[in-house]
Write the structure tokens for this entry.
Amino acid sequence: MRTVTNVIVVLSFFWLLVSFWNRNDIPGSTDYVAAIANEPRQARTGRPSFKASWDDVDYLVEPEYDYDLVGMVVSYRHHDNNSRMHRLADDHLNMLDVCVVWGNNAGSAQLGEIDFWNGIFTCNVKTRNQEAWDSFDMNQLSNNHLLSDDEDIRRRVRKVKIGDQIRVQGVLAAYQSPGGRRGTSTTRTDTGDGACETIYVDRFEIVRPATSPWRISMYASLAILVAGLLRFFSRPFKSHLN
């Protein structure tokens, strides 16, 4: 019995490492919501500029377009005072950068062959698979700076995981802080500096959470490891005396 417990502890530990490493892989089989096939909806807004406050800093938000986006999360980066550039600019209203895909990209069988990751202000894309690259439409991907001074929205945003299908409703907007001004892209076809959408969020929803086999595996292996360790340390100590 002692040997069996030892084997279980060792195997579950390595299983946990492997599943943790792969936990953010894009799910290979996904049940997509119908709206993910659509382009983001955008229309000129009559909403006036308004003030927002977060972390004792006042901001002026300048709406340009009403905006409604449904997409699948492929990369993200939280900005809860964890970036030196955000601290220097007093930019705490920006709670998250989230990179999403929609349309043909979301349903592509080659999507898992592409790597996505967020820098401080950017979403980066690369692959060694030429077929995957040829099938990918860069106009159906966007990096979004999400702004909010609403604690409930910020709480919802903190739950985002790779593969989640989300809906973001609000306004494309420029905003000013004591540290400077940031604008917004108003088209999905631009690239380079200024190509990210800056969205003041009125409503945020995870419309379909990701079902990640690796993430499920990670929690299962952790539970087995903990159970094995408890079993190991609960066994009576035996002293061998001559």
Remarks:
- The two ends are 24 Å apart (CA to CA).
- The longest strand covers residues 57-78.
- The chain has a mean pLDDT of 84.
